Amino acid sequence: MARDPSRSWPWLPDFLRRPQSHAYQPVDANGTFEDRASPYAKPEDVERRAANPERRVSFWANSFFAGVGVSLATLSIFSILYWLISCNLSSSSLNKGEAGNESLARYPTDFLRDVVPIPCHSHNDYWREMPLFSAIRAGCISVEADVWLFHESTELLVGHDTAALTLNRTFGSLYINPLVELLDRMNPKTPFYNGTRRGIFDVDPEQSLTLLVDVKTDAATTWPLVLEQLEPLRSRGWLTYLEGGAVHERQVTVVGTGNAPFDPLTDKSAHRDTFFDAPLDSLWKDPEVPDTETVRRYDYYNRTNSFYASTSFKEAIGPVSHGVLSEDQLRTIRGQIKGAHGRGLKARYWETPNWPIALRNSLWHTLVTEGVDILNVDDIHAASELVW
């Protein structure tokens, strides 16, 4: 039986002093609600309920489905509003020229003011969500672009293979133009500053960014176009160059690899602003024999023509058994690093194992400990956390 509220709460007003609704009363032996009508109900209402017991079930079923319908309609309205707002914001960004790399380049000192440069090379950088900017935001001091030239075009396309090439992803749009804009903003001409020597990292303005250009097509036609498209950086004095046999480091250091030609880089007397990626596996020196001189006259590769000395880890060192480098492998690594450093070059291994993660991190740590100058990384976020 329903409890009279007036017994427990005498202060209740009269309109609340009613027995409980039949919806909350016990059911009878047949599984239907007992018909305990309110004393305020009319006799004809009681007779109608007695004649139509299904009416109660129908009422609750209709209420349930009506609630579901209202909920779905409300959710649909919110989804449509969210989509419209998102489209409007995206359209506004595009209209303002803030799509792609340009949105991050608006305020470079804010964008990079807390970034600490780390000795990492962004391998296949054009695969990043934001080519160039993702790498430098992580602190990488080196990025890589694979360039292709087809049908006497005036554009160098950037991509890992021909299936990945598109007409709008060019060497200029992804790398040269953003670098020019970024360095222009880092070196403003104002009443307070009129310098030209600040690099892209606000924390270390003297740190140069290495732009590794991997030439995929014929060198005779591709490399001259690479040199031509570097002109916006060259004319502003932002390219590391060789003059009078001495190397002068600037904000961007361009290094050619792949099909890039080596012979044009051997003239020490020429003014030149590109360098070569020497073969690390051919520079080995016995790590246990002390050197009496660093660079010998008959060495092909040295600091005047090259910058990196690189090789495939997989081919030069081999697989890592049980996650541990053997003594022979360590000796090979030490000899190659010694050969690179003796020539004034920076040692780099590509095709290092990426999996398992523990092996990758351990190998990174070993390579840095042994003296590798730049880590070739695919996971730039892990590298930025200094897991090595």
Automatic annotation (TrEMBL):
This chain's protein is named Altered inheritance of mitochondria protein 6
Give the record's GO biological process terms: lipid metabolic process
Renumbered residue ranges of the record's region Disordered: 25-45
Q: Which residue ranges have biased composition labelled Basic and acidic residues?
A: 33-45
Q: SUPFAM superfamilies from the xrefs?
A: PLC-like phosphodiesterases (SSF51695)
Instruction: Provide a Gene Ontology MF annotation, just one.
Output: phosphoric diester hydrolase activity
Family designation? Belongs to the AIM6 family.
The UniProt keyword set, sorted, is: Membrane, Transmembrane, Transmembrane helix
Instruction: Give the transmembrane region(s).
Output: 59-85
Q: Which InterPro entries does the record match to this protein? A: AIM6_PI-PLC-like_dom (IPR039559), HAT_RTT109-like (IPR051236), PLC-like_Pdiesterase_TIM-brl (IPR017946)
